[in-house]
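In response to reviewer comment 3 from the previous cycle, which asked for concrete evidence that the modeling workflow produces usable outputs, we include below a single protein chain processed end to end. The sequence was submitted unchanged, and the resulting C-alpha cells are shown without manual editing.
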Amino acid sequence: MIGFIGLSHLGINYALATASKGFEVVGFHPSEDSVAAFKNGGFTIQEPGLQELFNSCGGRIFFTADAADLRECELVFVALDVLTDDQNNSQMEPLSALIDSVAPHLQVGVTLVLLSQVSPGFSRNLRKNLAASSNVGQVVYQVETLIFGRAVERALYPERYIVGVADPSQPLPPSLQLWHQSFGCPVLVMNYESAELAKIAINFFLVSSVTTTNTLAEVCENIGADWSEIVPALRLDSRIGPKAYLTPGLGIAGGNLERDLRTVQALAAQHDIQVDLVSSWQKNSQDRRDWVLRKLRVSLPLDNPSVRVAVWGLSYKENTHSVKNSPSLALLSATEEVSKRAFDPAVKSLPFSFANLELVDTALDACDGADALLVMTPWSQFANIDPVAIAQRMRGGLILDPFSILPADQCLAAGLSHHTLGRSPRLPVRHHV
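The workflow returned the following C-alpha cells.
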C-alpha cells in the first residue's frame, strides 16, 4: 500500500496516477471537507484528463483526513505544492508542518519520498531530524516534473525520475523500485544535493531558452523578420533539438521558474558567487511581460475612462486556473483607468479586486464596445472564434495577440490590425476615397 500526503495539485495527480497503475493508495489530506469532495471526484484543480484518470482508478484509492490510516503504507510520498511568496521565495513552513504532523503515525522503517520541490540541503536535514524523532527508515528526494495544464500526462508518462538519496551506491528500497518499474522510465540516482539542484538546473535551461527566444523575437518585430520562419532552422539543429522551447511569450510566470532563480540568488549570496546572468533573465522577463501594455499605451489614451479593452485570458498559461505571476493580472493592475471586460475559461474569480474590471461569460461578450482586444493567455478555444464576429462586437480594430492565437490573415480581412510577438504588425489596408 502506498500513501500520499498533501493532496494539492502535485499530490492529486501523482496519487491518481499511482492508483491507475494498480497500486492500493491512501491519500491523506488534513481537511475533512476536501476529503469528502475527493471521494466523489470533486477536485479543486482543473487539468485535462483528470476526471478520466480518477475514473480509471477502480476504487483503488482511499481518501482520508486521519493520518493513522497511513500506518499500513510502507512507501509514503510527500506531495504538497510548495507555494511562493510575492518575492518568489519558497514558503516551506506548511510542508515541514505537514511532515511533522504525519511522521508519528507511520510504520517503523517506512520510506518517505519527497516529491515537493525543496532547496538544496533540505532533504539531508530532514533525514537527520526524522532519524532522531520518528519511525521513518529512509528519506528520498525525487524531482517532480509536473507542468500545469499537462499534469495528468506528466504523472502518467514521465520522461525520467531523478532520485536523491544519502548514499547513491546503495540500492533503492524495494517498494520504491517496484513503483518506478510500473512507470517504465529511466531512473537517475544521485546524492540529495545533486537531485535538488538538478531540478533547478532544468528550469535554468528552460529560462535560458525562454529569454533567448523572447529577445530574438523582439528583434524580429522591429526589423521585418518573422520568428516563426526561423524556428524550423533551430528545430533541425541537433544542438538545440525539436523540443526546445522556441515559442515567444510574455516572460516567465507561474512561480516555479521564478522560485529557482531566487533560490540560486540566495545561494550565490551565501557563497560569494557571481550570478548577474540571473538578474538579466529576471529583467528580460519583466520587460517581456509588459509587451502588451507598451503596445497599448502607444495606441490608446489609457488615462481616459471612456477607453474600453477586452481581455482574453487571466491564467498565467493555458489549461490551468493558476494566476500566479500572471501577465494578465499585471496588465489589469497597470490599466486602472480603463474599462475592462475579461473572460477566461477556467478562472471565474480573482484573489483580489481590480478597478473597472468586469468578468463576463464568453469571449465575445468581452469584446462588446472594445477599442482593443488583448489575448493574454493562449487558450486553444480562442483560435476557433471568427475574427468577423470579433470585429462586429468591437468599437475599435486593435488586436494584441502575443501568442498568435488568432489567424492574422482573417483578422486583416475583417478590418482588424494584428500585432504578435516575433513579427512586425500586420495592418489592414485603408482605402482613401
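Residues 192-223 form the longest helix (32 residues). We consider this sufficient to address the reviewer's concern, and the full set will be provided in the supplementary archive.
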